[in-house]
Structure formats: C-alpha cells, structure tokens
Design brief:
Elements (H helix, E strand, L loop, with lengths): L4 E5 L3 H12 L3 E6 L2 H7 L5 E4 L5 H6 L7 E4 L5 H13 L4 E5 L3 H9 L4 E3 L1 H14 L3 E6 L4 E7 L9 H4 L1 H5 L2 E7 L2 E4 L12 E7 H14 L1
Parallel strand pairs: 1-2, 1-4, 2-3, 4-5, 5-6
Antiparallel strand pairs: 7-8, 8-11, 9-10, 9-11
C-alpha cells in the first residue's frame, strides 16, 4: 500500500506541530513556508521542506502538490494567502484539504471554498482548557460538533472495580465508553464484562448534555 503523503503550507507553531507529528507517525510530509529560516530549521525533520509562495499556482504545480493525499493550510495572519492556497489545493485536485482559521469570518470563507475541515487552534485549545479547569476528572476534550464531543476521563474511586455493564453509561446517561486506557495497554470497544480501575482513562462519546450529566452524577457519588 502506498504511504500517505501530506503537504503542510505554513510552518509556524501550528503547522510545524502537525508536520512533525505526521512524521512521527511515519507519513511523508512536504512543508512549505516563505520564511527561509523556518524552512532551514525544518529541512532535516521533514521528508521535504521548501521555501515557496503557496499562493503561486505554478510553484505548487512544480512541487507536485496535486499528487498529495491531503493538504493542510496552516497559514497564520495572512488570510488572503490562506484563501488563495486553499483554492489552489482544491483546484489542483488534492483530495482532502484542511485549513486553519483565525476568526469565524475566515472560517466561513474557507467552508464556502469546500474545505473538508476548518480548524480553530486557539479557540479549540481555549475550550479544552476551560472544560479541564471546571471538570476535575476530565483529561481531554474534543468537540465533534456544537452538541457532541469525545472526552477522556480518569476513573474515580467510586467506579473502581465496576464492569461497564454495571456502570451502564448508554442506558443511564446516553453516552458510550468506546475505549479504556490502562497501564497494560488500550482496549478498543470494551465489552460489558470489562472492569474499570481507579486511574484508568475512559474515552466517552456522546452529547455534551449527556456527558455533563454523567460527570455530575459520578462526582456526586464520589
């Protein structure tokens, strides 16, 4: 099977972190940035790193961008270049295009261009931190939509030794435990007979209201 290839346009803090994580996951990554110093710093860390203007169609064609599986537009403050680069990736036939937005208006413009996903790094991180501050057992929080999320919660003492059937999150709270992290490894799609232990990490998916109800009841029991 052909190894998936990614092009990351904009190697600032957000773009470089995505590019480096994709490299760590053993994917091929082309990084593009106008800043020679940034590209020089990243050249030994990525499959390829080039100094280029991503708003120039001929430049992107010469780099073979149309052959990449996914394009990530991670440009920061330059909204015009962000939008032009996004248009070019779509026009060149890159199958999946993800773009960073720095404002709601910017995000709406990107959505109208047909990007597959708009990412709001600062907003999303703020949401995560806020939820973690007010929910003691919450370790991570990913918003799937306005109403649904995936969360990681540390198993409290009151659930220690209980099976998933006993906890019965689906019937009682309308959310599902889809994975368990423990020191011995991760259990994907655990069965009703799997027990949780204090300190395990539960991965739940469900509506925000149902997850909040689950958290409130668990904390109340704790």
């Amino acid at each position: 099977m052909k190894k998936q290839q990614f092009v990351v346009i904009g190697l600032g803090r957000f773009g470089s972190s995505i590019a480096l994580e994709l490299m760590a996951l053993n994917y091929e990554v082309l990084g593009i940035d106008r800043n020679e110093e940034i590209v020089s710093d990243m050249s030994d860390l990525l499959t390829y790193a080039v100094v280029a203007d991503a708003s120039d169609e001929e430049v992107l064609k010469s780099l073979g961008v149309r052959n990449f599986d996914c394009g990530i537009v991670a440009i920061g403050e330059d909204i015009q270049t962000s939008i032009l680069a996004t248009i070019l990736l779509k026009d060149l036939g890159v199958s999946t295009v993800i773009a960073k937005a720095i404002s709601v208006l910017h995000g709406r413009a990107l959505e109208k261009l047909g990007v597959d996903r708009v990412v709001y790094p600062e907003r999303d991180m703020g949401i995560r931190v806020a939820h973690q501050l007010v929910t003691p057992n919450l370790l991570d929080y990913i918003e799937l939509s306005e109403d649904y999320s995936i969360v990681e919660m540390k198993v409290p003492m009151c659930l220690d030794g209980k099976t998933l059937t006993e906890i019965n999150t689906r019937s009682r709270f309308g959310c599902s435990i889809v994975a368990l992290h423990r020191t011995a490894g991760i259990i994907i799609a655990p069965t009703g007979m799997d027990q949780v232990r204090m300190g395990d990490i539960m991965v739940l998916i469900g509506s925000n209201a149902n997850i909040e109800q689950f958290e409130n009841e668990v904390m109340h029991d704790n």
